[in-house]
Amino acid sequence: MPTWKRCWGLLLALLALLPCLPSDLVPRITFRHGDPGRSLLRFRLENVHNYDQLVLSPDETTLYVGARDNILSLGIRTRPIRLLHQAPWPANDSSITSCVNKAKSNKELDHFSMPKNPNGTIITMDGRGQSPFDPQHNYTSITIDGELYTGTMNNFRGNEPVIFRNLGTKVSLRTEGSHGWLNADAVFVGSFNPQGSSPDSKVYFFFDETTREYDFFEKMTVARVARVCKNDVGGEKVLQKRWTTFLKAQLTCSLQNHFPFNILHHVALQNQPDPNNSIFFGVFRTQWQLGGRRSSAVCLYKLNDIEKVFNGAFKEQNKESSKWNRYMGVVSDPRPGSCSGGKFSDTDLNFMKEHFLMDEVVSPGAGRPVLVKQNVQYTRIALDSVQSVSGLNYTVMFLGTDKGFLHKAVLMGNGSESHIIEEIELLTPEEPVENILLAANEGVLYIGYSAGVLRVPLANCTVYQSCFDCILARDPYCAWDGASQRCRSVRSEQDKGKSWLQDIERGNPNTTCFSIGTPRVMRPPSASVKEENYSSCYNTILELRCPHRSALATYSWKTPDLAAPEMQMVTAEDAQVIIVREDTEGLYECWATESSYRYQVAHYWVRPVSCPGSVAPNTAERDYYKQFVVVTVLLVLTLLGCLGLGLYSVRDKLRARSKIQGCSTPETIKLSDSKEKKPLNGLCDGDGAKPCCVPLGRSTGKMDLENNSVAIS
Fold this sequence. Notes:
The chain crosses the membrane at residues 628-650. By secondary structure, the protein is of the alpha+beta class. Among the domains are: 118-230 and 241-257 and 310-358, YVTN repeat-like/Quinoprotein amine dehydrogenase (Methylamine Dehydrogenase, Chain H, 7 Propeller); 464-512, 2-Layer Sandwich (ligand-binding face of the semaphorins, domain 2); 530-609, Immunoglobulins (Immunoglobulin-like), CATH 2.60.40; 617-649; 663-713, no CATH class. Helices cover 14% and strands 32% of the residues. The protein has 10 helices and 40 strands. It has a 5-stranded mixed β-sheet with strand order 1-25-24-23-22, with no helix packed on it. A hairpin with an 8-residue loop joins strand 15 and strand 16 (279-285).
């Protein structure tokens, strides 16, 4: 086979292996920073920065904020937000000196963790194993029954991750560092206790780390979930003051024939009436970004599926090859991870110490991500559950991005697909959204950032001015009230009658806003339509804009009947450009089509008028013709002049070559291309010593440049 055919076949094979993302989800509406259609409330104090930690009081009346060198308590039931108390908490001199001696800068000494007890009290701490030494190190913490569970770094160098329990009456426990329970580059993202205060409840930690069980040419990061039992008491000789119930498993989040989303950024828990049915939502990205394109995904995991993996087979590392394989031997009884709360034998503890990694992986509940967004990197997620008018509960996800935006998305189709309702630009200049706190009873989100705290209402129903807008939004927080003819929040009223309309699954006004027997209209009676009249001068160029009220709609123009429309206007989705003339006068309308519903978004009346200095249509045509004639004449004259110059430049050469015979004069030698050694008249011997022509006159005559005999007297 030729080489080029082999190369072509290899290229086609590589192209077939390239990942292909599904069609990108697009937010229906985007609100830019400062847009009056999406009002935000801000709180900030002078000389206070990094509002990183947010904790809500149980009655949701007070917001506690951990900032740099300060702890704030804010009254959030008032408008604007009111400062209740400010407690300065700077680092002391001895701590600063100690940190600087360990190669830390002063800017890295102002951060701390601020966990909350179930009763709402705040714990401030900066001890070892309780908070990270470096603010760049991610950590997680949760307080259960007075015990503090943390996942953090245990040294200044940031290569000793640890899951720690302390502060309470139970024995302090931590992970074993010498057996690789946690790899040195572990990054913690969340910790949860779904079962609550039951004696055999478990604590789950989510983190990223470099995998060791796979052989790759480069380091591969995987997402993990680890589990420890709340009633763990540690071992006596083996695993003394160490966890005896520690297990970890891999989380997967991927699309078919695509690079996996293997880096976990954040996790949120959706509680259910039955704790065993709780669902974890994880925000992922991939470490392989083809062509520099970023993408994010949201995968959900059911607690029952996680427990099935933890109750399954283990992996075991081969001592000789260091490879990890499925363990096929006898499992100790009780098995590793059992929450029996008693003491274990040394034999069982040694087995538990070596068998902490599960063989199976935890797959997403839907088998694939519920949301995939291209060119966006999500950083945080918060969850809310909303009961619709029909009685169904819908999960709403609030997703922060690394560019300072917030996406509000709803899960549909029994949690198998998503719809991004809106996009809000929160922060400018852009910075990552690092903290989102949901206050469901109050109906707001609190977002901490470098310069303050933002309060974002969950619902924004007043922006939808008609039934059609309200239904097309597919926002579970909003429904159309036919009685009051307004789009209203479903949480604001307890009594929602038959006049309340919603269609979250399809968002089709044709089947929702029109009752049986009601004539259908193409334009919403209360929808905001852009209306303008233009009286423009003849032959001016006019641009008519088509406002895009929804990024999910397709737009088209309805224009007057024109004799030659391609010569008088240019049509695009977002604009119509026309030349104002008598034959372009009329009504121009822009229409949108979304969810099988067509509605008008703008219409313009265009009328040409005579203006000082403007040219009437007939005169304009004559002037255009004269200009065309002038340009054509000038072009012809220019071409003729160039041709004349060319002919004149070769005149001498043509005259010299037209001679029947030529002599070896200096000029004829230059013009002659012949290399004959003997002329055709045979009068010369070819040695070049004699002239080639013999004059007919006297031998003493001279020849001019044209071979004419010149007599010399």
